[in-house]
Amino acid sequence: MIKTSALTAWSPKVLSIFRIVTGLLFIQHGTQKIFSFPAEARGPFELMTQMGIGGVLELVGGALIILGLFTRPTAFILSGMMAVAYWQFHAPGDVYPLNNGGELAIMYCFAFLYLIFAGPGPWSVDALLRKRA
Q: How many domains is the chain built from?
């Protein structure tokens, strides 16, 4: 049986790992749209289009989430962006997320929503700045 006190002690560190992994996965969507890396984009996206702005938000927002810098406001913006992405691009195709390809948008939306309330964790620039203040 695992002692819950041991799990509780690791909880803040696991929050930081969750934040970093989420940011690393999310930033790839931005690099794909802007740089066609690590996979080709579905088309060249002009930066001043909705998809281009989404790519910039994914790139910059993902980097900020990885660093744990301005985590809560960044997560707020990204959660909203992913809600819009789901309802605008996925939901009109089908009611069910598995059928419309929107399950990842929903997961990111709620991952970022969680970070709004949980914060960045101890391994973050936000935590370092808070200690210095």
A: 1
